[in-house]
Amino acid sequence: MLSHLSKRLGYYALLLALAVVVSYALPSLALSPRGYFGGRRPPPPPAQVEARLTALGINDRTPLAERFRHWLGGARIGMVLQDPLSALIPVHHVGDRIAEAVRTQQDVSRAHAARRAVELLDLVGVPDPAGRARAHPHEFSGGMRQRALTTTAIANAPETILADEPTTALDVSSHDLSVIRHVADRVSVMYLGRTVESGPVDEVFGDPRHPYTRALLSAVPLPDPVRERERERVLLAGDPPSPAERQTGCGFRGRCPRYSALGAADRARCESEIPVPAASGRGTTAACHFPA
Description:
Layout: H1 2-9, H2 11-30, E1 53-55, E2 58-60, H3 64-75, E3 77-80, H4 84-87, H5 94-105, H6 110-123, H7 129-132, H8 142-154, E4 160-163, H9 177-183, E5 186-191, E6 194-200, H10 201-206, H11 211-218, H12 225-230, H13 264-272, E7 278-279, E8 285-286
Parallel strand pairs: 3-4
Antiparallel strand pairs: 1-2, 5-6, 6-8, 7-8
């Protein structure tokens, strides 16, 4: 069955389906007291998933769905989803949603959780937090909904926070490289779900080693028109490979300007070996067989 799914969905989509949909979405439906199934438990899933999950120093065989849901509830991992409107419950007050996240992992009273919800709204910059806690999601702007959803991720002080483009609805986008340079201490550049370069933001931006990072930074316009005209631009040919195709070797080689200039032996290495992050003396890593 998994082999059939992998051909239909692609390996990346299959991984996402196993890790998120089966482990998280289905259990959340099953726990709904009177949801879309009229108070009855939903039909059993079409597949049983068993796996050993290793994360945050824990390695056990607790049922995957149960453990992953507990972690995503904020005990070890906080989750900020990209679309806050679909993540918040439209008929519930925003403060009730935040208080629920608090009480899921902490043995506190409803009154204590409600006060904590107001404190969290104030922490993320929502004006009149006590009043806004009694409002519904549709009464919030997109940016305020994103801030409110962020409070559910930080409510229980998790060790790790997974953020899916958390600033999309705010004033600036996380895709803005200039903003990243000014607000971040470290940066990771990803391609096809793999980190290709990471390190202190000044080092990565000042002297990128991976060709994909160099291409991204060359696309950022310079305010000086003379320097803008004279600088070298890195143009990437083609398109990213389909996620339905299983990749061998370096997934970036089809668009890499450095690959096209290599000899036959070096090309064969790019085609057969997946590059692993290699450290530099500047605190950065680059997953490239031939970094700059």
